[in-house]
Amino acid sequence: MIFIACIQVNCTRTQNMPNKLINSTSPYLLQHAHNPVHWQEWGEESLDEAKKSDKPIIVSIGYSSCHWCHVMEHESFENKDVASIMNDNFVCIKVDREERPDIDQIYMEAVQAMGGHGGWPLNVFLTPDQKPFYGGTYFPSQQWSKLLLQVSQTFKAKRAEINQSADELAKHLQTSDLQRFAKENGSEVFSQEKLDSMFEILHSKFDSKWGGIDKAPKFVMPTVWLWLMRYHFAKKNKAALDMVLLTLKQMTRGGLYDQLGGGFSRYSVDGEWFAPHFEKMLYDNAQLLSLYAEAYSTTKDEELKSVAYESV
């Protein structure tokens, strides 16, 4: 039964003529090569087409091990009705963030600057000259279809406003980080009162039973706990250290930690670190190695020591 089902799924996928991704070398892009969406790679040909047709661009960014990228593909990009809306109104470009981290960084920053949350799949709408004016991450199929129609209609009806907004955002993104986040009085940025306020905010949101921030899904967020370690060193605040130690121990006791292969999954879908989202990120695990090693050097706790050694 399983074998037959697999054959049926493969037959369904190959009914569509391949799009321009069929010649790609990226495993992620090749996964989308039989979508009914007229996907193209990022490059001179696709960008010139947008300018000549005067259509807005959809840039959809993901990677091969991204769970929600696959969900959105199945729900929307394999749906012929949704694909028809995309093909009629947009130039559709697929990007593998592992091949083009430069493009991913630009448009991830753009979506966050618009007030959105970062993540993948990253779906960004651009003007024909590649300036972003709207974007987000995963959209359910029905919501995605409505958004496509709304963006297309707005682009035609309020083109001047969209161009102005895109130009302003482009100027914002072109400034350096120092210019963007600088304060007139730099000494105020790290005032003791603000550091104490940051701790109080984290403390109020802390899960005192399972560790981590009190919500699900629960992400590892190593930079948060590293900051609390620094705060503990600076203030001798035992509560900050306790928050870190409880989190680190509870993370190792649940399904989030790979007891056989080592390393941590990106997040737990529940609040108890029990059911992991099976995706390990190098940037998380590299920081967690430093975090566990630092926590062990502070406490000499053997439970923390074993994780740090196994992660090397």
Explained architecture:
With 312 residues, the chain is of the alpha/beta class. It is built from 14 helices and 8 strands. The strands form 2 sheets. A 5-stranded mixed sheet has the order 1-3-2-4-5, with helices on both faces. It has a 3-stranded antiparallel sheet with strand order 6-7-8, with no helix packed on it. Residues 1-14 have low confidence and may be disordered. The protein is 55% helix and 10% strand.
Count of individual beta strands = 8
Question: Structural class of the helix and strand makeup?
Answer: alpha/beta
Number of helices: 14
Mean pLDDT: 88
Measured as a percent range, the helix fraction is 40-55%
Q: Give me the strand/helix succession.
A: HHEHEHHEHEEHHHHEHHEEHH
Strand order of the largest sheet: 1-3-2-4-5
The multimeric state of the shown protein is single chain
Question: What is the end-to-end distance?
Answer: 43 Å
Major β-sheet, in short?
5 strands, mixed
Q: Can you tell me the residue ranges where pLDDT is under 50 for at least 5 consecutive residues?
A: 1-14
Tell me the strand percentage band: 5-15%
The rough form would be described as globular
| Whole-angstrom Rg | 23 Å
Helices and strands, with pairings:
Layout: H1 2-14, H2 27-31, E1 40-41, H3 44-53, E2 57-62, H4 67-77, H5 80-89, E3 91-96, H6 101-113, E4 122-126, E5 132-136, H7 141-157, H8 159-174, H9 177-181, H10 192-204, E6 218-219, H11 222-235, H12 238-253, E7 267-268, E8 276-277, H13 282-299, H14 302-311
Parallel strand pairs: 1-3, 2-3
Antiparallel strand pairs: 2-4, 4-5, 6-7, 7-8
Helix pairs in contact: 5-7, 11-12, 11-13, 13-14
